[in-house]
TrEMBL record:
CDD domains: M23_peptidase, OAT_like
Database matches in PROSITE patterns: AA_TRANSFER_CLASS_3 (PS00600)
UniProt keyword Cytoplasm present: no
Keyword Lipoprotein annotated: no
Organism: Bosea thiooxidans
Cofactor(s) needed by this chain: pyridoxal 5'-phosphate
Protein name: Peptidase M23
Residue ranges annotated for the M23ase beta-sheet core domain, each copy included: 427-524
Domain Aminoglycoside phosphotransferase: 21-257
GO MF term (any one): pyridoxal phosphate binding
Amino acid sequence: MEHVWLRGVAEQFGIAGGLRQLGGEYDLNFRGRTPEGDVIVKAMRPQGEPALVDQQCAAISHALAADPTLPLPRLLPAEGKRFWQSVADAQGQQRMVWVQRAFTGIPMGEAGPQPPAVLAELGALTARLDLALRDFKVTAAPDAAKWDLTEAGWIKPHLDVLEGSRRALVAGIVAGFEALKPALDKLPRQTIHNDLNDFNILVQPRLGEPAHISGLIDFGDMTHGPRVCEIAIAAAYAILDHETPEAALAAFVAGYHGVSALSAEEIGLIWPLVRMRLAVSVVNSTIEDKGRPNDPYVTISQAPAWRLLENPAIDGELMGARLRNACGLPVTDAAGRIASWIAGQRGSFAPVLGRALDGLPVGSLGIAEATIPQNPFELRADEARNLGTGLGITQQWWLGQYGEPRLVYTDKAFRKGRWLASNRRTIHMAVDVFAPAGEPVRAPLAGKVALAENRKGHLDYGGVVILEHRTPAGDVFHTLYGHLAADGAAKLKQGQEIGAGEAFAKLGPAEENGGWEPHLHFQLALTLDGMGHDWPGVADPDDWALWQAICPNPAALLNLPDETVAYQAIDEVALLAERKARFGANLKLSYKRPVTFLRGWRHHLFDAMGRPYLDAYNNVPHVGHAHPRIRKVAMDQLARMNSNTRYLHPAPMALAERLTAKLPKELEVCFFVNSGSEANELALRLARAASGGYDIVTPDHGYHGNTTGAIDISAYKFNKPNMGGRKPWVQLVDVADDYRGRFRRDDADRALHYAQQVDGALAAIAERGGKVAGFIAETFPSVGGQIIPPPGYLAAVYERIRAAGGICIADEVQTGLGRLGDYYFGFEQQNVRPDIVVLGKPLGNGHPIGALITTRAIAERFAEGPEYFSTFGGSNLSCRIASEVLDIVEQEGLSANAKAMGEKLLAGMRALMADYPCVGDVRGIGLFLGLELVTDRETLEPATDAAAHVMNRLRDMRILVGREGPADNILKIRPPLTVGADDVEMILDRLRICLREVEAAR
């Protein structure tokens, strides 16, 4: 055993199998196993004071007596009434040693950044711990007083250990700390833990739900201080490397406040103290690094601490407002008074454009109501200049709404991350008054000019003026006027007095106002904290609660009721309830938390608030959502006619010619229907007519549609409860899965062995006196688990089926039309020529069309029966859309893109597989990909819960994927063919986070 000097302790407590050393700055920590569970052995540094150990043990006991459910260490008694004993270490030095029950979970510092729900839980637990310790008296102070945040100014003389800009940054933090210290010193003091860093907080990762805080440990640095120091210390480490540290801190503080209410003064100190704690950390680690250069414990949090301290996007004043808002307080002490005064004066303000605005039409640029812009990532200049026309508004005077989620803000400045699916600002924080250029703009009440300038950037304000106003009580607020003429703004001077009703500017034309249709952007701000004079006019939906408090609806200043110009967002709770009431319970929604999508573009979807999501799942929009060429073709044909195949029209013939040109020459007769389901149903009829048989051979766990006939051959459906099971005329063979199937990749003849199962199926048909009609399979089984059959499999199957007189049907709904990159159809990869090919929804990019293509001989046998007709199958509209889809695939190089992006994604997922044992297999061709999760790579036990966790977590991260396979443990990735390299990088980046969570929860 290592550390033989601890053998006696190990024997006393029944620790078997040795002790594993853990981290620690001064003391030694070990983990061991006993019959009753794991324990932690803590050995204090030599010459440690018994009083400090006694104090830690007493504090833990005291806190648990006050709040028994706190996740604190459970101490194991040593001798007599003490929890510790003195043991000589390998150098003969006496150390105090004590033992406590180990927690489940891992340090937060290893688990990585946690979602807001976990940080709120941590905040609540921190508050409970503070309440439990508030009447505990600290009598023994630790030597390391440098961690007492109230005395953090000790780092000032040591700033020379830092260099350049970092030294200046920390010097500024220290100066801020010195300014607030008098207020800090006046706060009440109590016993606090004082070191709830991310390695003293344990989290228990869980699949399907957020992790939970499982332990708060290491009471060795307790001190007597203000509770706001406890908050700052814990929060400083909890938000390290968080993508949205502001939101993370707000969640933590709100969690604390919900248990133990904070004063506005305390809230105002939190962010400066967070920064000061991190400043102490980086200065201390820099000093210590010189003396202990190889000790990772010393420098473990230095890099993420610097990343947070140097983050230019975090504004201290705005952080203060955010924390107040998170705790339910007004963003400033005056904010509530100002809002009440303005509301009370409604109707008495001077009209900002010289006329009453009530009665004007209200237009909506909201995502639910408008299709402007067509491309949500690029607002065209003509769209910006003709917003009203785009909405069908003919009047020059009309109103735009406050709080409206819009997609017109497409400049990169509105995005908050590196991906197209990252957060973006969409919610309008003003009221727009559309009116002719040149209309005079007036002050609704007296004020003075705080800012007047011309912002010439594309889609910026152009001329913009900010006025400062005061209420009779002396409270200050501001109004902003955007999209003004440049010359008017240029004439104004800062501090210039403007009277109520006085015209001080004019509405600018598009050439001067940023490129927009002439209008006034009128915005109210109750504080300039965090904004200064560079106001955001649009808010991130995730920050809307904050910005709504800073910049509330300015309707009262326009003498309008709030509701006149307040956008009414979709009530998603009511929408879900209505769906449940109006539709069958087996019409399922995706994801644990369903999402409402209102717009799409290429491979992105947009929810009701304009948040973008990367669509890596929906294969139906084959060439991308809302393709403008498809829209144009559809509108053109609908303006002409839409009829059926009983009349001659060139569109069906053109589509048939396009399809047959891509297929083996013997596949020359087309049938057009409305879906893949109908096409498969029709394929069964043709096979039976041509073969004279009725029985079908098909792989297990297949899916071919929702018609009665299609369900009868879809084991994925008929094996479900209450579906009646397999019909006697259906024979199942194994899916040719060479990863977990009966015959695997180490078997060189696995393709033949799988194909030989058809012999047994044919024998079973003969035994029951039947005759085979055909074999149908998804060329690459998708519902079966994104399976790529081994080479030669289908050739051997088709040979057997044809020898028995059957027809070979290739269901190419999932794999056809270029999705596989090198292969236009999946059967090409298997080097076979089917008798019937079935196509479905991707052919119409979401428009309802399916197709069946077969040989002349089979079609003629089918024609011996009754007339075949489908009212909408092969309509002029459907066929023109389908032809356009085929043109787009070819002309935009989407097959080549599918190949390149598929290879990039496949290589990236294989790299992840090397790092994460939960990934059992990665497979696919082109953009038909699967990632299989297992609990054990030897047994291949399916990790169904893990797959569900990853799918739902990716949804939280704005990526849509699906799950497939008999055990639902395979992630299905099949995006529109437009997906790009940055999107692939996002998928891989987010997958890594999710897989790390899975491994942590194992």
